[in-house]
User: Which sequence fits this backbone?
């Protein structure tokens, strides 16, 4: 199972649209559009979880493609660092 980052999404993109787009490449196990917690509006990015083979196909097929006039950024999601890692950083 791989988690995929999707960036530069049009703000009006729905989870159903993303599901349809990614399911062309394999079974979508989960999908999440990130929204602003105050306004509820899309922040223009999200995440999809798929089997490894489907994820690789989706990345190859969708990275750099266009959706509603915006060029998508599709790649393997990077692990988010915890807040304590930021606080303990020494410059």
Assistant:
């Amino acid at each position: 199972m791989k988690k995929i980052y999707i960036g530069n999404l049009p703000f009006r993109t729905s989870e159903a649209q993303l599901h349809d787009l990614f399911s062309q490449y394999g079974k979508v196990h989960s999908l999440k559009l990130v929204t602003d917690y105050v306004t509820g509006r899309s922040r223009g990015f999200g995440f999809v979880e798929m089997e490894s083979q489907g994820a690789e196909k989706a990345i190859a097929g969708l990275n750099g493609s266009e959706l509603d006039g915006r060029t998508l950024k599709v790649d393997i999601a990077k692990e988010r660092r915890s807040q304590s890692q930021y606080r303990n950083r020494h410059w």
The CA atoms of residues 2 and 52 lie 5 Å apart. The first helix runs from residue 15 to 23. The chain has a mean pLDDT of 91. The radius of gyration is 14 Å.
